[in-house]
Amino acid sequence: MPQHPNRHLTDQADLLYTINHVFLPLKLPQGSDHSLENDLALSQAIFDAALAFSDQLPSDKLVLWSSSLKMLRNFKDSIRFSVMSAKEVESQVNSMDNNDVLVYMIRAQNAAVVMRKLESETIFESFEMSPDPTAVMGAKGRLICSYPGPAITVPDTIANDATFHAELANFLACMDKDVLDAAPTRKKAKSTVLEERDTTHPRHITKLLTSILRGLGSIADVPRIRKRIGDDVLWDSAKLPWRRSPLWLVIRVALQTTLERGALGRMTYKSFMLFFMARLTTLALDHDLSNNILHFMSAKIARRLFKLGSSASPQLSQMISMVTGDVRSILEERWGSVQDAQQVSPPWAPENLQVLRDAHLSLNTSRKYIHQVLYNQHSSPQRSPFDPSHHVGVVPSSRGSLGIVRMGSSALPLP
After folding, report:
1. Using CA atoms, how far apart are residues 131 and 239, in angstroms rounded to an integer?
2. Cβ 168 vs Cβ 175: under 8 Å
3. Strand partners, 106
4. Which of 110, 241, 309, 366 has the most neighbouring CB atoms within 10 Å?
């Protein structure tokens, strides 16, 4: 049975933001809608869905899923403020147990860092959060990207040191707020202006931090995933363009790579994504959203269930069937209301008619034509005299009769 949807997405603006960035419907905003409040709403919605998803799993998998829950909770806490707290990061790193995962958004550097605690080492992974807009607009279809980027393993003799934890937390917190690269510029109206629509190169994380950790450890050989990135750059009379939420990408990459390397596997990740999208669809029904959005959401979750096939649990399949059935019922009810309204004849109220005003025609460019029609002032076409330049001659016909030939033209025999 479907769980009650996220209680935090009570505001319709927050819900529309989440739907736009999760479902990527056909009609999207034409300007940036990013804000800290929207990020918090999205991260909270995912965490609440992960809690509810526990009911979909058998008891022997709940312990494995709890690691992902802990990762999502820590991630949600790390983005509560516009500037990352070094103390909170240090506390989370100190609290890591074996098989725990931490993920951080380094917002000023357009990069994400994933830490994986193993029995005798800690693996540090990094990748770019928001692709370069030139690559997004230049791609035919969707971008195909590999995640994560560089990966470094650091032994526990260093990774468990308290000084290392403090320095790492301080480095990440500073990088989260410090703008180190000079902003790109462009020419506009013969003057140089800052180009704020470009994304920051993640080199200070993917290269600088990687190089520092490489001096303490070694390159890690980790499994990588390929994702088709559905992104866009939409801009119309706005300061900044609309881009798909980097937070949504970071969570998906961290969650998918974590589940695929464990016993839960890829199907658990796909099932959770479908479960989360179904909860959003249920919430969209409660907010009475437009027909286009409801149909798009229903079609998308139905297609995801079809692709899962027999891998989807009966409980999840029943949930999707109920949600899509509710959407269909509402759309049919709305269409029936439209049909009923169209069948009713308009009321006849002649006293409300304004014949003179409604019959007034404005023909501003037809005055000359109307004047000519009314007064019959059409000019008759002048006839030019016919004066042929050729001569007529008579020659014997091959059949013994006479034929008329016009010199300079084809012969025309007489009957």
Report:
1. 19
2. no
3. 111
4. 110
Handedness of CA 384, 387, 388, 393 (dihedral sign): positive
pLDDT tens per residue, range 305-344: 999 999 999 999 999 999 999 999 999 999 999 998 888 8
**What's the rounded Cα separation, in Å, for the pair 93 and 69?**
16
- DSSP 8-state secondary structure symbol assigned to residue 239: S
Task: Give the C-alpha separation, 366 to 248, whole Å.
Answer: 60
Distance CA 132, CA 229 (A): 12
Q: What angle do CA 97, 157, 150 make, to 5 degrees?
A: 75
CA distance 392 to 291: 81
Residue 53, both tokens: 């998803």
Residue 194 pairs in a beta bridge with 185
- Cβ 126 vs Cβ 112: under 8 Å: yes
What is the phi-psi region of residue 237: left when phi exceeds 0, alpha when psi lies from -120 to 50, beta otherwise? left
Q: What is the pLDDT of residue 407?
A: 47
What residue spans of 287-313 are helical by DSSP H? 291-308
Phi/psi for 399 (5° steps) reads -100, 10
At residue 311's C-alpha, the angle toward residues 229 and 271, to 5°, is 45
- Residue type, position 328, single letter: R
Q: Which of 1, 22, 11, 8 is nearest to 281 (CA)?
A: 22
For residue 16 the two structure tokens come to 């529309």
Q: What is the pTM of this model?
A: 0.78
